[in-house]
């Protein structure tokens, strides 16, 4: 077993020019954490110098350590390893906004748009975090989906303050042509001159994130801002015209002002959505093209491949077809779906569980005679995903509590990962088996 000081390395979470992030365990506590190890590559060290890189790393750790806010990630420990390299230990999160929308290293490619209700939810958290940062005089300068971790309670936690700076602080040392921020999400003035970035630069980046969540694309051209046909109307036009304005003086003055405008949009959208649902007949069922054959019931181990290679999903891991479910109550414990022949437990697990704990939970359900509850396969779980392409789709009731959206499947990806399904946002993904997701049992 490998250790960094008292932290046992479980696996590699990511790597970049500045170093690596590990999933680690503090054995005496039995707690999983994330450890960020500073180990810059030679090119970056030549460009910026070791002293400046370490200064930025310590600066990031101090910001995360002293700011206590529900939407800002916490640092729990710092130190140096036996080679003298700096590290910081942080909260561990299984998901981030980038993985939820399906963004990749090819940022310009389309990703999964989220239902408006989720967009409002995540955007409010993001703006609350920015309001706290800006109140402390801190400009983040790298707001993007992959810097927004998602907690088990589905809240945003902002991370990665390595590029942030205090208001009035001189620009970090380094080459004059060194870009600060991430392509497409960075404001025009910050891209041209990082020293000009202020809190309004973060406002611009936040607007890009919200647009991305709503539409699944980036407004790289003026015509890309056309929201017609996306369950959105012109109430959004003024909002995006302000937060994405190339002139910082014409953007929202603060994150709280932007949040107030977003709250008005949410109220308008909810009123409009309720009116649409009231007009639909009680027996309304949206048309759904195609019905898959009886879903696969035998679990598989797929290996480290994309979901679209092994499951009936598209390139963005969304179902290729949607089932028109016909649910009928089966006593006190189940819902029978006439479309697939599957019976689903009436209630998911009361708490999110690891994949191994899911097995124990099912053993408990199967106490007594003739109980055959099991973990569903991905193919079975995705029959519960409902389309959200039109406003009327959002009126269809579901058998699953909307407060629970991530569910383990019986299918595994590797020895350490299993597949899960996000029933609300409608996609399939692989994740570490130590992550905490709910269980929705099934039987044939």
From TrEMBL:
Residues annotated as binding ATP: 36
Listed transmembrane segments: none
Keyword Kinase: yes
Sequence ranges assigned to domain Protein kinase in this UniProt record: 7-265
Record-level Gene Ontology MF annotations: ATP binding; protein serine/threonine kinase activity
Region (Disordered) location: 170-198
Entry-linked Pfam families: Lcl_C, Pkinase
InterPro entries the record matches: Kinase-like_dom_sf, Lcl_C, Prot_kinase_dom, Protein_kinase_ATP_BS, Ser/Thr_kinase_AS
Keywords of this entry: ATP-binding, Kinase, Nucleotide-binding, Serine/threonine-protein kinase, Transferase
CDD domains: STKc_PknB_like
Protein name per UniProt: Serine/threonine protein kinase
Phylogenetic classification of the source organism: Bacteria, Pseudomonadati, Thermodesulfobacteriota, Desulfovibrionia, Desulfovibrionales
């Amino acid at each position: 077993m490998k250790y960094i000081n008292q932290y046992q390395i479980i696996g590699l979470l990511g790597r970049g020019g500045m170093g690596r992030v590990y999933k680690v365990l503090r054995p005496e506590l039995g707690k999983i954490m994330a450890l960020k190890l500073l180990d810059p590559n030679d090119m970056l060290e030549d460009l910026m110098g070791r002293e400046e890189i370490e200064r930025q790393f310590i600066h990031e750790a101090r910001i995360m350590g002293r700011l206590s806010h529900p939407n800002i990630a916490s640092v729990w420990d710092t130190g140096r390893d036996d080679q003298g390299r700096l590290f910081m230990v942080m909260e561990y999160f299984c998901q981030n906004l980038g993985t939820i929308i399906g963004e990749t290293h090819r940022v310009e490619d389309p990703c999964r748009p989220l239902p408006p209700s989720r967009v409002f939810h995540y955007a409010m958290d993001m703006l609350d975090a920015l309001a706290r940062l800006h109140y402390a005089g801190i400009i983040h300068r790298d707001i993007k989906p992959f810097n927004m971790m998602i907690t088990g309670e589905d809240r945003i936690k902002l991370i990665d303050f390595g590029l942030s700076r205090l208001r009035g602080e001189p620009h970090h040392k380094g080459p004059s042509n060194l870009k600060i921020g991430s392509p497409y999400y960075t404001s025009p003035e910050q891209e041209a001159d990082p020293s000009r970035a202020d809190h309004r630069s973060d406002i611009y980046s936040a607007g890009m994130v919200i647009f991305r969540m709503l539409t699944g694309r980036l407004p790289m051209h003026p015509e890309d801002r056309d929201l017609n046909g996306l369950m959105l109307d012109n109430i959004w036009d003024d909002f995006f015209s302000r937060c994405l304005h190339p002139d910082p003086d014409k953007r929202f003055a603060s994150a709280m002002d932007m949040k107030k405008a977003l709250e008005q949009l949410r109220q308008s959208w909810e009123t409009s959505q309720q009116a649409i649902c009231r007009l639909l007949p009680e027996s309304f069922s949206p048309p759904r093209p195609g019905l898959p054959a009886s879903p696969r019931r035998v679990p598989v181990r797929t290996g480290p491949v994309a979901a679209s290679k092994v499951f009936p999903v598209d390139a963005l891991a969304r179902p290729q077809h949607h089932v028109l479910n016909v649910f009928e109550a089966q006593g006190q414990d189940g819902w029978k779906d006439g479309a697939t022949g599957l019976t689903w437990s009436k209630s998911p697990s009361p708490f999110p569980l690891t994949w191994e704990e899911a097995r124990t939970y099912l053993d408990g359900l199967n106490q007594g005679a003739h109980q055959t509850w099991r973990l569903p396969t991905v193919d079975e779980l995705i029959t519960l995903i409902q389309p959200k392409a039109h406003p009327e789709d959002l009126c269809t009731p579901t058998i699953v509590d909307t407060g629970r959206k991530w569910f383990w499947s019986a299918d595994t990806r590797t020895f350490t990962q299993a597949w899960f399904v996000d029933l609300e946002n409608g996609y399939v993904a692989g994740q570490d088996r130590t992550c905490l997701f709910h269980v929705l049992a099934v039987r044939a």
